[in-house]
What we know:
Layout: H1 10-21, H2 28-37, H3 95-98, H4 100-107, E1 114-116, H5 120-130, H6 143-150, H7 159-169, E2 175-179, H8 191-200, E3 204-208, H9 220-223, E4 227-230, E5 245-248, H10 294-310, H11 312-334, E6 346-348, E7 360-361, E8 363-365, H12 369-378, E9 388-389
Helix pairs in contact: 1-2, 4-10, 7-8
Amino acid sequence: VMEPSPLELPADTVRRITAELKCHPTDERVALHLDKEDKLRHFREYFYIPKMRDLPLIDLSLVNKDENAIYFLGNSLAKMGGYGHDVGKRPWIIGDEIIVGLMKDMVGAKEKEIALMNALTVNLHLLLSFFKAYAETLQLHGLNDADDKAKRGEETLRIEDILEVIEKEGDSIAVVLFSGLHFYTGQFFNIPAITKAGQAKGCFVGFDLAHAVGNVELHLHDWGVDFACWCSYKYLNAGAGGIAGAFIHEKHTHKIKPTLVGWFGHELSTRFKMDNKLQLIPGVSGFRISNPPILLVCSLQASLEIFKQATMKALRRKSILLTGYLEYPMKHYYSKDKADTKKPMVNIITPSHIEDRGCQLTLTFSVSKKDVFQELEKRGVVCDNFIICI
């Protein structure tokens, strides 16, 4: 087995090329020769290199404006390059903060009560770590009782059962964490009632709004919810893995300190002093850990700008009509009392009262749901997890 040839030292390489070209080592021809012989040089074409003319601090009298910049950064390959972090109408370093205003009407909160960060599950962990989630929660201390009552032939939970469990077990519960809208049945839970009941027993009350935000009207501040979090890839249209959101009511602003801190929870004015003195931003913004992913921020901004034009009030009004319009023919053609036994049975398990449901109807079938799904797909009908959402 032959031993690999030892690498030529850079200085030896320069001397060898200098001898070949018969020039001084500092001659430009050495650099051009090295570039020409570089076997990786074609990969440069795979990247967007900013043009001289697009750099904000450029002196165009010193350069050819149409040439590529001499770009030493390994990141931020966009029109302005790394300058995009702190230059322009939407500097990337505050890209998430700039669009919080577009989110406030979606969840009914003040801007300072919202942070756009991380993913849904990460935010759940961060919030629960502060709100003493390691103590007994509703799910671990009695929610199964409500589930058992739902097995009375009912597909959904009764609000009176939920409140009964809170009343019975509330004195030993630290945190009530509940879903705002059930992803499978489409049931829209009474958030104000659950919040009031939990807080009356001394509990913190929070909500997972993954399937509620962008679906129904929310008023987290006015309802007095302690904390909440949500994703943006479902009804907010931002795509899988989109940046998530978190809410902490302003009444907790000066009482809270995240269990896990990161550099983006530090005040921007002193963030880059690097003096190892934490200057935590008050409220939910102090829970931010890392730099916002600007590409995810952009996709969410595009969606939220459309929501702002449409308004949740108008969207909710339309979704109630559309869902009811679908419900009508479903009941007309597929109700249980139809005599035609050849026709498959279709049952709607989403609550019938419009105030108790979001913008979906969840259907169960007497035939294989897989077959139904495939037949719909063949006809270009794209469904979500066997649930038809409108």
